[in-house]
Amino acid sequence: MQPANSYIGSPVHSGKVLPEWIDYNGHMNVAYYVLAFDLGIDALWVDFGITEEHVQANQSSTFAVEAHVLYKQELKLDDPYVITSQILAYDEKRIHQFQRMYHEREGYVAATAEWMSLHVDLGERRVAPWPAKILESINEVAVGQPDWGLPKEKGSQMAVRNPVWKVPE
User: Fold this and answer.
1) Burial, 58: exposed, middle or buried (Cβ in 10 Å; 0-12, 13-18, 19+)?
2) Within a domain: residue 160?
């Protein structure tokens, strides 16, 4: 097992690749990488105090508005994985975070996900400032994380290096 202190990011979720997650290529389907990352977000939100009880009592939650997933190395049936999270930035209404999915035994990064999430007033269905207590928790986690630096994959852009054809700019 990969020691937790060798991960970049704080471990927030772990699991194993389930049989129903395997596609006809014999590896974890892309949709389930996103599911695993989302479970990591849910766990991080609990650390911030954004629980089901909070959502119901305060009618506030978060919506993901942008995500970018990079698939780096495949995971197969029963492979154990760990999701880590790194807060890159936040303000009074938004949070930008970066996640890595590690193969727990072998230690390689199987995938990464970059997310922008907004705090939303569910009654108004509009972006709203974080509740003070949640903002305080986000700050504690952000300033308490080690200096992992910016991920090299942050803001990555898709491109065909030497296209035979492309849409004219």
Assistant:
1) middle
2) no
Position 105, amino acid: R
pLDDT digits (tens, 9 = 90+) for 11-35: 999 999 999 999 999 999 999 999 9
R_g of the chain computed on alpha carbons: 17
CA atoms of 42 and 66, how far apart (whole Å)? 16
Q: What is the tally of structural domains in the chain?
A: 1
Residue 100, both tokens? 């890595």
Q: What is the pLDDT of residues 81-117, one digit of tens each?
A: 999 999 999 999 999 999 999 999 999 999 999 999 9
Is 10 within a domain?
yes
Domain of residue 62, residue span: 4-144
- CATH code for the domain in which residue 80 is found: 3.10.129.10
3-state secondary structure of 28: strand
Distance of alpha carbon 95 from alpha carbon 109, whole angstroms: 23
Amino acid at 67: A
Helices (H) and strands (E) in the chain, counts: 3, 6
In a domain, 158, yes or no: no
For the question of whether the overall pTM of this predicted structure is more than 0.90, the answer is yes
CA of residue 142 relative to chain centroid, distance: 15
Tokens of 18: 């389930």
